[in-house]
């Protein structure tokens, strides 16, 4: 019997009411009296030296308040990178300056050169056209391998070359891996591209900077997944504003998917400029601007080799990846292809030896950073594609090959530095075979073939590391921040509760799911509990929402704080009932004394805390408010098995997904409805990556070719099927109080290899000996592959 | 957008007069023009909206049996109103853009713009339509003059389009995955005196007639008549979404399918 | 500047606007009806979808001047008179047809227009109709279910949770 409240209930989302009635409050809905508007003049060339900027004509245009250029930011900090990667020689990564406005050079199309602050947006834009900029165009580097050739044009003049770092992991294993590969009975080799994507949350980024002279307070309203991180980075590294004079507010945010984690130039600009012009400054990105200023995702070029013994057991895995950083290091750019990628290369398999080499490369393209899954989709795609290729080469069933090599005993220490606490990969595969009706595939294929279509089935597994992250561990790995989270549970006098959480909800439903946990713990109705988030002035601290961490980390902090509340409330209840604290039980919102019929209600206790007339003031303080910080002891390891079944039109190369099934193990689940929704959305993004989405640059000029929805194919309703998702296989996380693992990224991680494996299955079933096809498998690419 | 005025004349005469102003430009449904203006790729001083002109609305059959569609007719209206009379054309109109686009975009606007990936030019060319303007009538064969180029003079307005109704017809669009415009679209129209095949989306020269296919289909209106026939990839568009060879290949595939589905 | 007058959500309004003022700007900036959103600049995402004279229109691709004399309906007017969610809105909540909420007003307006023309649309018809509404969060699964449910169809039989 499904529950109707508390943990495990599919409670309807309370936030929906405001979104469904047009009462959401997104950043662009904020207008402050006296506000000005900024328009950024952006580079239209990928690489060039700025020889002169003349703003005089622009300054005299109607409505112009002030024109800013790089000169105004001399002496002001650049945008920092939050993770220091040390390369295989023990050297730190190269960290070139990342100015708010270009200083001397432009390094990608869209790089901001100047900014006009004016009374209206139209006036700002008009004036920006009057800025005279001379740029001496330089050769653009776009292709990563070419960027590393000697004599290549340098993105950053002060660096020796375009190599940001050359990372080896685990470096001590390198020779052993080489030997194992050399001595394997069979080696499957695959070269592939993990295509560059644009995250494209439907709400474009917005920033409104505001400054109050009376108390020297700056406020930034911004479309962020982590307002405290922005306050920390912008305050401490860029503008030099102490935390108590800087408030960052991220109200309703229309999706993030990673790209709203990072600290952006426009945020720093609006905060800075509002102090300069002493008026609020607002920037609203257009979608076209988003394509050239939001950090992009993926963009790996990889060679992977899988060794197998004569019995088809995996012996070793060796990978070489070129990872595109773009023109500058975005906030978490360096950890995505390294620690979020290399540590997951064991996948779900007991491969004993693994080595990866990652070369991070600067190019004249928009910066690349974490996008839904961040490193883990890249790892999963490599592993699951090379296994499928091996199965085809060896003539074995791809599911059987996977099952044979599954990790089956937990905890399991991988050869890539992490320890999986729990999992049951056999169970999720069994469940997948059931919900995908794999047994019935042959009949469905025959039916498709009767209609002149090819039909393919592709399966893959995935593992991810979520709940980011143990601070001590990530500190050793180069993180420049702790990755704990925090929550304050404020119980009001009449018993209602506000929970201030460091996680940020931008679609994940925290306002509904988090109260379910507290309601369960206290036995009071969910509607007595509200979540407060997204404002540094209201919440104690928080590292925000990304990496499927909200419940596992911030939820754990909330549990800890609630436990403190319960402990204190029990003391009060014991006093009120003149009983021993040890005998007090809390159930269904009632405190009782074990073995008696004495009870006091939740509200009686909370009232006593705030009206302490009859209260043990000598032992405890009045009030009922507790804060907890929670730092996880390990990552969590959600896993699962996915299946894509599709039809391929051999005449046009067009692929139509007929069925998509996902069996996930997320550990315990708070709200199944929300979890399913997260998986659906992730799958659609994975299908998008596999079949539709491609952020492409002209290889010579560095011009963005997919610069709008006219050329960047977003998945639409008719591109995807209904999905069959299941999360009944549950191996709870062993080290957080809720036993949760996180579900936000799984869909995007688990789906691309299934789709591509299915495309190749369809092609090969039709006699087309195609070994690999790069994403997105567009009709034209599929057709070209069929031509041989 | 740069600043401009919007005028909303209610008669063709007033619209023509308004278009006589310096840097005036006609505004149909605006579904292509407005995004263009947002990019500041055009700077008219005045936009003359043609959507409020009653005499450019309405769909009728004239004495000669031609289906006459007012130049200001929106795609959604055409899709509904010609479904019985000219299903091939209705099917085309029903799949332009999305429902909201079809509630604004007009046939006159689409033809005047002559986007190389637009659908309507294929219908007009394959149907031997006549483009009626405020000053003259132009045969479709003379109207389309290459990508974004037509026979229209400055200030000339498409007031009506006259379609001979074929015995059988079909339009099949293979969508570019992002824009959903035609990567290739083929309109096949079978008349008593021959077959016409018009192709959009494929060529650097805009909509064109595939005359080899027309000749082959004239004597045998069936997909088998096209066996062994292939469109030339010369002058085909090559971009992110498909090579010239792929587009040429699709022309053949879609033509066969359109013939098979024509009714 | 020119004067435009229209009925928005049943209320007569008139303002002086520039020729280039888009209907969506007029709604958001002049009337402060911020429920209608802007998600792109190429008329594809549908976050700005409203009804003009009862028809679905992308308010980012229509000038305010063109709506002179029209009746415009936005998401703010969709709830029942007592403030409760209407059938379509309620189905979106019941079936979790929204996550971040940004595309949602356009989705609701689009779904409403669809159901007016086609009271019992099939899954395929809904998916095709929504070509002009992009959602990045839901993968569309629950949006389709919500619309089918709002039209009184049994969704349990067509799609899993």
Structural commentary:
The complex is a heterotrimer of chains A (788), B (263) and C (161). Chain A contains 19 helices and 28 strands. In chain A, strands 3-5-1-12-9-10-11 form a 7-stranded mixed β-sheet, sandwiched between helices. A 5-stranded mixed β-sheet of chain A has the order 7-15-14-13-8, with helices on both faces. The longest helix of chain A has 28 residues, at 550-577. The radius of gyration of chain A is 27 Å and the shape is globular. Chain B has helices spanning 12-19, 33-38, 75-81, 87-93, 99-102, 107-113, 120-126, 140-143, 211-219, 244-261, and strands spanning 5-7, 24-27, 46-49, 59-61, 67-70, 130-133, 137-139, 158-163, 168-175, 182-191, 194-200, 208-209. In chain B, helix 3 (75-81) runs antiparallel to helix 4 (87-93). Chain B has 2 domains: 5-163, Uridine Diphospho-n-acetylenolpyruvylglucosamine Reductase, domain 3 (2-Layer Sandwich); 168-261, CO dehydrogenase flavoprotein, C-terminal domain (Enolase-like, domain 1). With 161 residues, chain C is α+β, with helices and mostly antiparallel strands. Chain C has helices at 23-30, 87-94, 104-117, 123-129, 141-150; strands at 2-8, 11-17, 49-52, 55-58, 71-73. The mean pLDDT of chain C is 97. Classes of the chains: A alpha+beta (788), B alpha+beta (263), C alpha+beta (161).
């Amino acid at each position: 019997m499904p529950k109707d409240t508390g943990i495990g209930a599919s409670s309807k989302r309370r936030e929906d009411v405001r979104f469904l009635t047009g009462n959401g409050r997104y950043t662009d809905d904020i207008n402050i009296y006296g506000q000005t508007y900024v328009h950024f003049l952006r580079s239209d060339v990928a690489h060039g030296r700025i020889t002169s900027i003349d703003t005089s004509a622009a300054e005299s245009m109607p409505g112009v308040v002030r024109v800013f250029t790089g000169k105004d930011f001399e002496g002001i900090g650049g945008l920092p990178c939050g993770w220091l990667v040390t390369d295989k020689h023990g050297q730190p990564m190269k960290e070139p300056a990342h100015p708010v406005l270009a200083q001397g050079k432009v390094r990608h199309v869209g790089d901001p050169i100047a900014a006009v602050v004016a009374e209206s947006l139209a006036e700002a834009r008009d004036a920006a056209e009057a800025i005279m900029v001379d740029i001496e165009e330089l050769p653009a580097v776009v292709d990563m391998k070419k960027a590393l050739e000697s004599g290549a044009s340098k993105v950053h003049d002060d660096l020796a070359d375009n190599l940001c770092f050359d990372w080896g992991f685990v470096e001590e294993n390198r020779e052993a891996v080489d030997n194992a590969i050399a001595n394997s009975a069979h080696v499957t080799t695959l070269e592939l591209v993990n295509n560059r994507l644009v995250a494209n949350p439907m709400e474009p980024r917005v920033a409104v900077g505001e400054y109050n002279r009376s108390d020297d307070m700056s406020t930034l309203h911004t479309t962020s997944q982590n307002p405290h991180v922005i306050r920390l980075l912008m305050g401490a590294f860029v503008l030099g504003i102490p935390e108590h004079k800087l408030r960052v507010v991220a109200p309703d945010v229309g999706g993030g998917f990673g790209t709203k984690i990072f600290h952006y130039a426009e945020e720093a600009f609006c905060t800075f400029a509002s102090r300069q012009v002493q008026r609020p400054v607002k920037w609203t990105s257009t979608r076209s601007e988003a394509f050239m200023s939001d950090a992009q995702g993926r963009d790996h070029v990889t060679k992977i080799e899988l060794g197998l013994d004569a019995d088809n057991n995996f012996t070793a895995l060796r990978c070489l990846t070129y990872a595109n950083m773009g023109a500058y290091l975005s906030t978490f750019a360096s950890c995505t292809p390294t620690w979020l990628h290399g540590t997951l290369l064991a996948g779900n398999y007991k491969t004993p030896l693994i080595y990866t080499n990652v070369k991070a490369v600067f190019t004249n393209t928009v910066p690349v950073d974490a996008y839904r899954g961040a490193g883990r989709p890249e790892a999963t795609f490599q592993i699951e594609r090379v296994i499928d290729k091996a199965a085809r080469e060896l003539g074995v069933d791809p599911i059987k090959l996977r099952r044979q090599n599954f990790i089956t005993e937990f905890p399991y220490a991988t050869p890539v530095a992490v320890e999986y606490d729990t999992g049951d990969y056999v169970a999720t595969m069994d469940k997948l075979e059931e919900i995908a009706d794999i047994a019935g595939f042959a009949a469905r294929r025959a039916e498709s073939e009767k209609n002149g279509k090819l039909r393919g089935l592709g399966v893959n597994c995935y593992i991810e590391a979520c709940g980011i992250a143990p601070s001590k561990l990530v500190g050793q790995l180069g993180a420049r921040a702790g990755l704990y989270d925090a929550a304050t549970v404020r119980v009001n006098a009449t018993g209602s509760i506000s929970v201030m959480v460091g996680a940020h909800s931008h679609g994940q439903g925290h306002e509904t799911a988090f109260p379910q946990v507290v309601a369960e713990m206290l036995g009071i109705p969910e509607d007595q509990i509200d979540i407060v988030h997204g404002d540094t002035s209201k919440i104690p601290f928080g590292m925000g929402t990304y990496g499927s961490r909200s419940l596992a980390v911030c939820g754990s902090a909330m549990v800890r704080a609630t436990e403190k509340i319960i402990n204190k409330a029990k003391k009060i209840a014991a006093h009120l009932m003149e009983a021993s604290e040890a005998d007090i039980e809390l159930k269904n919102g009632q405190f009782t004394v074990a073995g008696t019929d004495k009870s006091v209600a939740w509200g009686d206790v909370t009232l006593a805390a705030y009206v302490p007339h009859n209260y043990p003031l000598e032992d405890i303080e009045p009030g009922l408010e507790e804060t907890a910080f929670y730092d996880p002891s390990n990552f969590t390891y959600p896993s699962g098995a996915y299946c894509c079944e599709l039809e391929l039109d051999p005449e046009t190369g067009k692929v139509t997904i007929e069925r998509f099934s996902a069996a996930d193990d997320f550990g315990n689940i708070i709200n199944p409805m929300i979890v399913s929704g997260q998986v659906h959305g992730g799958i659609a993004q994975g299908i998008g990556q596999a079949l539709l989405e491609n952020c492409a640059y002209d290889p010579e000029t560095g011009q963005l070719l997919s610069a709008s929805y006219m050329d960047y194919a977003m998945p639409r309703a008719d591109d995807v099927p209904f999905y069959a998702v299941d999360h009944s296989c549950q191996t709870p996380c062993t080290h957080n109080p809720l036993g949760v693992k996180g579900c936000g990224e799984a869909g995007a991680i688990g789906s691309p290899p299934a789709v591509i494996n299915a495309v190749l299955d369809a092609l090969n079933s039709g006699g087309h000996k195609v070994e690999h096809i790069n994403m997105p498998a567009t009709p034209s690419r599929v057709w070209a592959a069929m031509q041989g | 957008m740069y600043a401009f005025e919007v005028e909303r004349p209610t008669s063709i005469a007033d619209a023509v007069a308004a278009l006589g102003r310096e840097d005036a430009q006609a505004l149909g449904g605006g579904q292509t023009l407005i995004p263009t203006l947002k990019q500041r790729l055009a700077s008219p001083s005045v936009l003359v909206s043609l959507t409020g002109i009653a005499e450019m609305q309405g769909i009728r059959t004239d004495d000669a049996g031609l289906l006459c569609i007012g130049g200001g007719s929106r795609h959604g209206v055409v899709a509904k109103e010609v479904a019985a009379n000219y299903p091939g054309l209705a099917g085309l109109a029903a799949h332009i853009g999305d429902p909201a686009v079809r509630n604004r975009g007009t046939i006159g606007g689409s033809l005047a713009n002559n986007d190389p990936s637009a659908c309507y030019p294929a219908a007009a060319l394959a149907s031997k339509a006549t483009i009626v303007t405020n000053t003259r009538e132009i045969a479709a064969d003379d109207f389309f003059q290459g990508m974004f180029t037509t026979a229209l003079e400055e200030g000339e307005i498409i007031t009506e389009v006259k379609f001979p109704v074929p015995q059988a017809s079909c339009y099949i669009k293979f969508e570019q995955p992002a824009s959903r415009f035609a990567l290739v679209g083929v309109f096949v129209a079978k008349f008593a005196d021959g077959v016409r095949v018009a192709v959009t989306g494929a060529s650097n020269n805009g909509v064109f007639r595939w005359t080899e296919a027309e000749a082959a289909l004239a004597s045998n209106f069936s997909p088998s008549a096209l066996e062994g026939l292939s469109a030339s990839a010369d002058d085909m568009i090559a971009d992110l979404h498909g090579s010239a060879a792929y587009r040429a290949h699709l022309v053949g595939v879609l033509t066969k399918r359109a013939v098979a589905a024509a009714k | 500047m020119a004067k435009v007058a229209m009925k928005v959500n049943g209320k007569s309004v008139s303002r002086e606007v520039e020729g280039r003022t888009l209907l969506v700007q007029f709604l958001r900036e002049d009337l402060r009806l911020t429920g209608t959103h802007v998600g792109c600049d190429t008329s594809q995402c549908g976050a700005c979808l409203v009804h003009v004279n009862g028809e679905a229109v992308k308010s980012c691709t229509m000038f305010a001047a063109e709506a002179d004399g029209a009746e415009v309906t936005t998401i703010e007017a969709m709830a029942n008179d007592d403030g409760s969610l209407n059938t379509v809105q309620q189905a979106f909540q019941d079936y979790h047809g929204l996550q971040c909420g940004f595309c949602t007003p356009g989705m609701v307006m689009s779904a409403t227009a669809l159901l007016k023309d086609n009271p019992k649309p099939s899954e395929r018809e809904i998916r095709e109709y929504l070509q002009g509404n992009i959602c990045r969060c839901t993968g569309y699964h629950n949006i389709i279910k919500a619309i089918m449910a709002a039209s009184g169809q049994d969704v349990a039989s067509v799609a899993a949770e």
